[in-house]
Amino acid sequence: MAQALHAGCALPSGPKGIPAAIDAAITGPADKDRAYMKALFIPEARMMFVSMGTDGTPSHTIRTLGDWMARVKARGHAMPEEKQVKFHIESYGNIAQSWSSYALHSDGKQIVRGINSIQAIKEAGGWRVTGIMVRAKWATAPLPREYLPRRRQA
Q1: Would residue 90 count as lying in a domain?
Q2: Residues 59 and 52: beta-carbon distance below 8 Å
């Protein structure tokens, strides 16, 4: 059973609910109340954003949840919407790992796609995120075929 948090939000009761919970926590006005996100992520959680410099040198930036929320809030009334498009989850006992492709929209326009690597643990109230590693798609590195959504047959 999932633990109720506020306004109908709950921690996922199983690993397969983690991607949708992250989408719900991120999606909405940039300046929205982030109480659900604070409950979904453990206090020590980190978000790592992997990037490539203009010279081709790989790099990364690590943010706390508080850092991320402050950066998003500074965007004011922008309306980000994240959707985990396709994911694969593996779990063992009270640990889980998810690889997922995502699409991030802002004010209705897609601004980026990429891959999330999400780690989570099960606690008494449900599943919580311990960290996310994010890599946006680059022109020189398209998303792998296995993470693209299936095309509908006409």
Answers
A1: yes
A2: yes
What is the per-residue DSSP string for 7-64? TTEE--SSGGGHHHHHHHHH-S-TTS--HHHHHHEEEEEEEEEEEE-TTS-EEEEEEE
Distance CA 30, CA 32 (A): 6
pLDDT tens digits for range 66-116: 999 998 888 877 888 888 888 999 999 999 999 999 988 888 888 888 999
> What are the DSSP E strand ranges found in 93-145?
95-106, 109-123, 126-136
- Which has the closest alpha carbon to 122: 7, 16, 47, 25? 16
Is 124 contained in some domain?
yes
pLDDT tens digits for 2-13? Answer: 444 444 568 999
Global confidence as pTM: 0.84
